[in-house]
Write a structure and sequence with these properties.
By secondary structure, the protein is of the alpha+beta class. A hairpin with a 4-residue loop joins strand 4 and strand 5. The chain is built from 2 helices and 12 strands, in the order αββββββββαββββ.
Length: 184
């Protein structure tokens, strides 16, 4: 028998090394590659997000000024620091920022956007750790708002935005100064 090696001819340390490599190779094979299944062709498309409820309707206006910051209007960041804000009329119009009840120093019950007299609800209560840190108040963590109006929901031309901050107890709202913007 030529060509065959008897196990008695292999040194013990070499046999252990070969056995260890074989075991490692086999255990590595047990970890399968991550699989990404293809999308289900029968799955229904995601439904569009339902509009948030308007919370200020029917409430009295408080003489207290509204405590808010508008971080984004369309693609414009920090729109309150700009002389004019212009956004395309044929695209969805996003608004985001933060607001809280200035009278209590607590999160508001909600925030509404009033555009040309028409109130629109916002998703309110997402975390803004930067706001809580800035005001040194952990109570002001969940004070973010956002809303997106569908493309074409506003006409081309000049518009006026008011931000209404509903009080923490939900019994009144504070309203900010008018914010003009243009759609083209």
């Amino acid at each position: 028998m030529t060509g065959l090696i008897r196990t008695s001819q292999i040194p013990t340390s070499a046999a252990i090394a070969v056995l260890a490599v074989a075991v490692l190779a086999l255990t590595a094979c047990e970890k399968g590659k991550p699989r990404h299944p293809p999308p289900d062709p029968m799955a229904l498309p995601d439904a569009p997000e339902a509009p948030a409820p308007v919370r200020s309707t029917g409430l009295p206006k408080s003489p207290q000024p509204a405590a808010f910051s508008l971080d984004q209007l369309g693609a414009t960041a920090s729109p309150l620091s700009k002389p004019t804000v212009t956004a395309p009329a044929n695209q969805p119009l996003a608004f985001s920022g933060f607001a809280y009840d200035a009278a209590t120093g607590q999160p508001a019950r909600g925030v509404d956007l009033v555009i040309d007299g028409q109130a629109h609800g916002t998703a309110y209560g997402a975390a803004r750790p930067d706001v809580a840190r800035y005001f040194k108040s952990p109570a002001l963590l969940d004070v973010a708002f956002k809303a997106t109006l569908p493309a074409g929901s506003l006409t081309v031309g000049a518009h006026t935005l008011l931000i209404r901050v509903v009080s923490a107890d939900g019994k009144s709202y504070a309203e900010g100064q008018a914010i003009p913007f243009q759609l083209r």
